[in-house]
Amino acid sequence: MNTSEAIRARRSIRKYKKGTVIPKEHIHQMLEAAMMAPSACNTRPWEFVVVETEEIREQIMKSHPYTQMLKTASLAIVVCGRPDLQESVCAGFWPQDCGAAIQNLLLQAKELGYGTCWCGCYPVMERVKELQEILSVTSQPLAVIAVGEADEEPAARGFYDETRVKFL
Predict the structure, then answer these.
(1) What CATH number does the domain containing 49 carry?
(2) Which domain, by its residues, includes 88?
(3) Are 134 and 58 in contact (CB under 8 A)?
């Protein structure tokens, strides 16, 4: 699958085949792709928490109402921002940088044959604080990414809309 195909085939998956085990090698490939994303001044203001245990996924689902697909997903990858890494240079761009990392992760997962769903956390600070406690992190949880073997094939929802383009 090339990049163009992955972009057009990627979907937000909310139903997964329960019990699918994702090999560590594939998890590593997804995280490596995420960390290849561009970032302001190459500060790489991110860290990742891979949640494989059902117990912690349950806690996440209780604190974040839009993560119920974690019941059947194989794992969650929580993308956390590190604004502290940008304090002295390029401050404030960490949400954009983490967003680029997330998109790389989603596309790599698709190429590997997995479905994903991006569930936002930041800037809803109540969710951020609860996830910090659950995950024992001081970084800012920006998103919870569900990953697993898709058990649905939703139609594409994205499309080209030329009314949102201006050529100068």
Answers:
(1) 3.40.109.10
(2) 12-152
(3) no
